């Protein structure tokens, strides 16, 4: 289980391949590799199956989309008028999507779900 504040090591595709190569060649077990590199057996199994399906490309880390609004949450003042307009535009898009899904916005900004 992860500990609070724990840093996770991000490995590239080549490092992952070097770790799972003994498993693929039947030279070592999942348990042995798991203890040696301090990686869970489930993660090793996931890497092996991705490698078997897609080769080395399956081991490449995928870019996670993230929250497009995150860059605005830490700022109180925008650098330009363009950034402020971009922020307001994004807020309106989100509000529009919420309304399409059946949510109501109260005057104070809180969101209430209603059924049709």
Salient structural properties:
single chain, 116 residues, mainly alpha, 2 domains, two-stranded antiparallel ribbon, 2 strands, 50% helix
Describe this structure in words.
This protein has helices spanning 13-24, 30-37, 41-54, 70-73, 81-100; strands at residues 103-105, 111-113. The protein is mainly alpha-helical. The longest helix has 20 residues, at 81-100. The chain is elongated and about 60 Å long. The chain is built from five helices and two strands; from the N terminus they run αααααββ. It has a two-stranded antiparallel sheet with strand order 1-2. The protein folds into two domains: 13-59; 70-113, no CATH class. Helix 1 (13-24) packs across helix 3.
At a glance:
By secondary structure, this protein is mostly helical. Helix content is 50%, strand content 5%.
Helical segment count: 5
Assign an overall shape: elongated
Determine the structural class based on helices, strands and strand pairing: mainly alpha
Biggest sheet layout: 2 strands, antiparallel
pLDDT < 50 stretches:
none
The secondary-structure element order is HHHHHEE
Question: What value does the average pLDDT take?
Answer: 81
Strand content: 5-15%
Domain count: the total is 2
How are the strands of the biggest sheet laid out side by side? 1-2
Approximate helicity band: 40-55%
* CA-CA gap between termini: 43 Å
Write down how many β-strands occur, each being a DSSP E stretch of 2 or more residues.
Answer: 2
* Whole-angstrom Rg: 23 Å
């Amino acid at each position: 289980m992860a500990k609070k504040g724990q840093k996770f090591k991000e490995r590239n595709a080549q490092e992952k391949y070097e770790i799972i190569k003994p498993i693929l060649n039947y030279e070592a077990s999942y348990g042995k590799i798991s203890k040696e590199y301090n990686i869970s057996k489930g993660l090793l199994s996931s890497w092996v199956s991705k490698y078997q399906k897609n080769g080395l490309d399956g081991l490449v880390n995928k870019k996670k989309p993230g929250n497009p609004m995150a860059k605005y949450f830490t700022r109180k003042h925008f650098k330009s008028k363009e950034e402020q307009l971009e922020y307001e535009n994004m807020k309106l898009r989100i509000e529009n999507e919420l309304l399409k899904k059946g949510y109501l916005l109260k005057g104070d900004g809180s969101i209430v779900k209603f059924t049709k």
